[in-house]
Amino acid sequence: MDLASRLADIDARIADAARSAGRDATAITRIVVTKFHPVGLIRDLHGLGVRDVGENRLQELAEKVDAAHDLPGLRWHFIGQAQTNKVRLLAAAAARVPLTIHSIDRPKLVDALDRALGADGGPHAASPIDSLLQINLTDDPGRGGIAPADLERLVEQTARTSTLRVRGVMGVAPLDEPPAAAFDRLARYSERVRAVVPDATWISAGMTGDYAEAIVAGATHLRIGSAITGPRPERD
Ligand SMILES: *Cc1c(COP(=O)(O)O)cnc(C)c1O
Questions:
Q1: Is 33 touching ligand 1 by the criterion CB < 6 Å?
Q2: How far is the CA of 20 from the centre of ligand 1 (A)?
Q3: Is the CB of 158 within 6 Å of ligand 1?
Q4: Domain span at residue 135?
Q5: Residue 143 lies inside a defined structural domain of this protein
Q6: Which residue's CA is minimally distant from atom 13 of ligand 1?
Q7: pLDDT per residue as tens digits for the range 116-166
Q8: Residue 231, in any domain of the structure
Q9: Taking every annotated instance into account, which residue ranges of this chain make up the domain Alanine racemase N-terminal (predicted)?
Q10: CATH number at residue 184
Q11: How far does the centroid of ligand 1 lie from the alpha carbon of residue 109, in Å?
């Protein structure tokens, strides 16, 4: 299958899964994860109507925004671990293109982003960046995401900034558990976030292997890579 057929196939499966779950597929954003692929893939996807792409490395995101910021209507999603010493790259990207950050996962990152985005009347003072709090769905504290016990504090801290807007939660299902169970927990964490920020309704969940389960659990944003792009080129 070529890129267009794989995209159409996944979109049909998303529509089916939404219908079976009694959900409106148009309320679900399908993000195509383009990490490690050349920027030409983003142009090809844009030509096929894709408007949401995801990257998981700051340097790569910065390079691709530079090379493809001209594509009309394209929205960028940062889904990777953000090192605090590189947040300037995120701020620079956000000044050029629409950007959502899916991976807010610690107080230090909120502080660093807030400073980089210009808390004191910088370009984002009027339009804060759409931000999702990544929650660790595993028992391993070394994995990405805030521990559920610390969730409310991070929501409150993020919501207090003028540069970041809390839109919801993000999670990656652990490998050693059925994804449906993990996504059910994520849905409950989403309720806890909405108790603090009522309109933070976004749930970013579901990848190539588990997007159907994520749709059942209420995901509003799917992050799908290899099922659409084909295998990723080797990196590092
Ligand atoms: C790479 C990646 C994806 C996409 O993974 P696939 O299995 O290729 O669909 C989704 N979410 C995150 C956080 C990723 O890093």
A1: yes
A2: 24
A3: no
A4: 3-11+28-219
A5: yes
A6: 79
A7: 998 555 555 568 999 999 999 999 998 999 999 999 999 999 999 999 999
A8: no
A9: 33-233
A10: 3.20.20.10
A11: 21
